[in-house]
Q: What sequence folds into this?
């Protein structure tokens, strides 16, 4: 932390959202309508699912150490990767950044006291918990072996596992996502503080606005689709079962109509996080603000038009495959625009090497690889070889873990002082960021080669020639696990023993840094009035910095 | 080096070098851009490292020319990737005219393969080198996928009324190559694989004739079924029956009741057996019952082989579904759907 200005001794504010107004006890948490407390409820619950999914992942990697499978039976292996996918995607990745960081920050960032519908916000957490209980019930009463994609007629007719409760759980959980999206859209439209114009919004808010659009428009489709599969299973209605005149490929179309945009639900908020961290730790305005903001919306819109690129080898019409391949290339452009703009932001910056910056730069590296390998899968002539192989596994883990999870962990490090009022150990956090980056690449890069060599996904055993790369991947995963466990320890430790952070430790320019850490329940003591542009360090004497080596005019009104 | 830790599987079909070249092209472009980004980030990271705790960066808000550059150049490069990839894929989806036709039936968790002369194999596929081979894929239960890494091709095997997927390739190198099921299909998905054995044409012919497991000729089996299942009572050869004569039908254009035409290929024949009312031939009533669940995929394949053999029989003057003047100039079968 040598590059951060010497931190004056701070005190925690006397009353803040964690200690005020509710009295003690569990009731003040489970009945809260404070978006910040609900964010922490989500933080705890998505962490539970992250660890459940992580345990499954660990077992998968251990099992794949030997060609014949080292740990479990084929049935169990199939359940492990299915439950890993369901837990991680529906109950960790999709809610992680929006429901934790978004929930906490969106109102504060735009100068509001809470989200537009605080009670609905609490409702969405309860819905998440109820959905989660159904899924955990499925996991613990026979498990689930359909793959997280629930392809029919395997899921609706042939599987002997607990499909029905899982489908019901995911159906219920969808409403949580829809309500969160609705809350964000209404809040961003109607509750911005005086002076907080659309083009002064932090890019984090733009990213969440785009994400919310996808949540509202896409989630109902997957909910209905899974419900249909469930009805087919429970009551033998023939929607997808070919023996009853149904169409199994229809399921895939409907499923991916949501589940491809769902990738953008996971990655857009992470892009929002990175768009906050980079200018803060380079201490300069973000390069191409309007391009980054517009590219979020473009990704959300075009992202709805590419779903059938998951179906290139189902026998779909070659002509529609051409259309979907073309549209998939189109959606790559706004992602590339973001990467170029983030990189350009570093130019002539004043770059600190603090942990959030390392996470953000790690994100750019991993997301770039994930995004570029998406070009291979969008390419019809390559997809007919690598589809459903480990190449796909590697690609989407680079996006979802390298991208979304790096963004989430980076965001937690960036806003942790705001959320808890305390600082964690800087050197440990930097070390964890590096371990995570190295472990991640060791785990997943070999899988690109495995995939091109032809190893199909979801294999509990494999030909011996694939063993070397699998062992390498498992070795990497053990490093990756350390990278995830470390922050758990020092972040929790910091909640009690960390140094007091003060309102703006980095310092950063957003509205959330103009209030106490942790913020008061009503977020601001006085409704803020915004008269500056985002990420503007030059005209912010309140930050107490100098410009380009030249001290600014003596700060006035500095607190 | 390739032997110890290969980066790509053996190249054993006409598609393999095409896909590998495409792969190299994309890899070159992507390595260039990933390298560019990495070098820029690392360089800036050190060059602009904060020198003084209170220092701030130079306020640069953007540059339209740069934005245009990094939108237009990636867009153009993407288009080239799209175009090249599309060309390879379209080639793969249109099988050439004269192919060696092999039937592949997938079920949990095995592959049943039938050579043109009726020789049956389980989890093995023998093909001659240098010959265009077309696989017609049927599933008895869930979605499977037939994937030959050395050929760089795969296609889903989908259960359903009119879903015969087909795929084709031309083996270029004799040898033994893995094939896999690459669409997750339940418990023993990982064991649902086998070997493609590419042989010299003479070896293949010898194998085909000398194979101990030589099954009955599918045309004969089909002919027997055609009588047993009472198909022949309506589909009378001279066109006087309640259903169209099937003579000369295979591969021809058939005029349907709704005025459109359809190519009478494997998929249409299969649909007409399991869902006969889906597309009725013009001039006939929807009388035929469904045979869904009463015939196995292999029996349907045998019936198809028999109907195929009727191609050379004389077409009756009336009472056939063959559209007037259509000849057998059929569109490639793979594109019908």
A:
């Amino acid at each position: 932390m040598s590059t951060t200005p010497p931190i004056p001794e701070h005190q925690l504010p006397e009353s803040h959202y964690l200690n005020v107004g509710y009295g003690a006890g569990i009731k003040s948490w489970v009945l809260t309508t404070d978006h910040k407390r609900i964010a922490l409820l989500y933080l705890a619950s998505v962490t539970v699912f992250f660890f459940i999914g992580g345990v499954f992942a660990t077992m998968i990697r251990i099992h794949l150490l030997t060609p014949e499978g080292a740990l479990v039976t084929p049935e169990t292996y199939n359940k492990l990767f299915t439950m890993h996918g369901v837990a991680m995607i529906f109950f960790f990745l999709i809610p992680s950044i929006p429901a934790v960081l978004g929930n906490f920050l969106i109102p504060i960032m735009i100068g509001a006291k809470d989200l537009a519908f605080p009670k609905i916000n609490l409702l969405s957490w309860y819905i998440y918990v109820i959905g989660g209980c159904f899924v955990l019930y499925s996991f613990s009463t026979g498990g689930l072996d359909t793959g997280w994609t629930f392809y029919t007629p395997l899921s609706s007719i042939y599987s002997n596992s607990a499909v029905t409760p899982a489908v019901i759980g995911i159906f219920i959980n969808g409403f949580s996502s829809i309500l969160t999206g609705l809350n964000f859209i209404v809040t961003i439209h109607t509750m911005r503080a005086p002076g907080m114009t659309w083009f002064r919004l932090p890019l984090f808010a733009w990213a969440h606005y785009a994400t919310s659009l996808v949540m509202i428009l896409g989630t109902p489709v997957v909910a209905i689709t899974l419900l249909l599969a469930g009805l087919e299973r429970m009551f033998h209605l023939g929607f997808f079962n070919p023996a009853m005149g149904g169409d199994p490929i229809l399921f895939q179309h409907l499923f991916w109509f949501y589940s491809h945009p769902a990738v953008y639900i996971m990655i857009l908020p992470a892009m929002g996080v990175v768009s906050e961290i980079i200018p803060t730790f380079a201490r300069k305005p973000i390069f191409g603000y309007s391009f980054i903001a517009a590219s979020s919306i473009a990704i959300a819109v075009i992202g709805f038009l590419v779903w059938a690129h998951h179906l290139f080898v189902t026998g779909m019409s070659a002509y529609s495959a051409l259309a979907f391949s073309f549209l998939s290339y189109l959606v790559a452009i706004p992602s590339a625009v973001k990467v170029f703009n983030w990189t350009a932001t570093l130019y002539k910056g004043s770059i600190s090497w603090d942990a959030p910056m390392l996470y953000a730069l790690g994100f750019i590296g991993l997301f770039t690889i994930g995004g570029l390998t998406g070009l291979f899968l969008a390419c019809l002539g390559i997809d007919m070889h690598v589809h459903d192989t480990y190449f796909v596994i590697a690609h989407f883990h680079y996006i979802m873990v390298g991208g979304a999870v790096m963004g989430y962990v980076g965001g937690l490090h960036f806003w942790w002082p705001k959320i808890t009022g305390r600082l964690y150990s800087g050197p440990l956090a930097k070390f964890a960021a590096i371990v995570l980056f190295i472990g991640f690449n060791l785990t997943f890069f070999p899988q690109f080669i495995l995939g091109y060599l032809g190893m199909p996904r979801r294999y509990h055993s494999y030909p011996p020639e694939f063993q070397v790369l699998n062992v390498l991947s498992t070795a990497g995963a053990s490093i990756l696990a350390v990278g995830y466990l470390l922050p758990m320890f020092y972040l929790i430790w910091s909640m009690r023993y960390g140094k007091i952070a003060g309102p703006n430790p980095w310092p950063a320019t957003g509205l959330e840094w103009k209030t106490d850490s942790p913020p008061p329940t009503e977020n601001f003591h006085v409704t803020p009035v915004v008269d500056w542009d985002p990420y503007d360090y030059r005209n912010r004497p309140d930050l107490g910095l100098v410009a380009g080596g030249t001290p600014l005019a003596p700060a006035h009104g500095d607190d | 080096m390739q032997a110890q830790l290969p980066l790509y599987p053996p190249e054993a079909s006409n598609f393999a070098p095409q896909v590998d070249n495409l792969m190299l092209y994309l890899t070159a472009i992507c390595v260039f851009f990933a390298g560019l980004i990495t070098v820029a980030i690392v360089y800036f990271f050190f060059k602009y490292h904060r020198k003084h705790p209170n220092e701030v960066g130079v306020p640069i808000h953007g540059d339209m020319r740069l934005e245009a550059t990094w939108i237009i150049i990636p867009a153009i490069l993407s288009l080239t990737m799209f175009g090249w990839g599309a060309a390879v894929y379209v080639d793969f989806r249109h099988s050439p005219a004269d192919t060696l036709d092999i039937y592949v039936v997938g079920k949990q968790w095995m592959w049943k393969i039938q050579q043109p002369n009726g020789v049956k194999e389980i989890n093995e596929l023998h093909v001659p080198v240098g010959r265009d081979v077309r696989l017609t894929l049927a599933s008895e239960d869930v979605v499977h996928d037939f994937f030959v890494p050395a050929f760089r091709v795969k296609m889903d095997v989908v259960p359903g009324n009119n879903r015969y997927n087909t795929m084709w390739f031309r083996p270029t190198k004799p040898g033994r190559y893995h094939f896999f099921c690459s669409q997750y299909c339940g418990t023993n998905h990982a064991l649902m694989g086998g070997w493609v054995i590419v042989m010299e044409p003479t070896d293949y012919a010898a194998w085909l004739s000398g194979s101990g497991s030589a099954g009955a000729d599918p045309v004969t089996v089909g002919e027997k079924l055609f009588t047993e299942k009472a198909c022949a009572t309506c589909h009378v050869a001279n066109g006087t029956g309640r259903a169209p004569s099937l003579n000369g039908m295979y591969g021809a254009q058939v005029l349907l009741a709704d005025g459109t035409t359809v190519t009478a290929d494997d998929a249409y024949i299969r649909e007409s057996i399991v869902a006969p009312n889906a597309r009725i031939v013009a001039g006939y009533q929807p009388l035929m019952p469904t045979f869904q669940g009463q015939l196995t995929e292999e029996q349907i394949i045998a019936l198809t082989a028999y109907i195929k053999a009727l191609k050379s029989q004389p077409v009756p003057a009336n009472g056939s579904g063959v559209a007037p003047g259509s000849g057998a100039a059929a569109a490639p079968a793979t594109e019908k759907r």
About this structure: The first helix of chain B runs from residue 15 to 47.
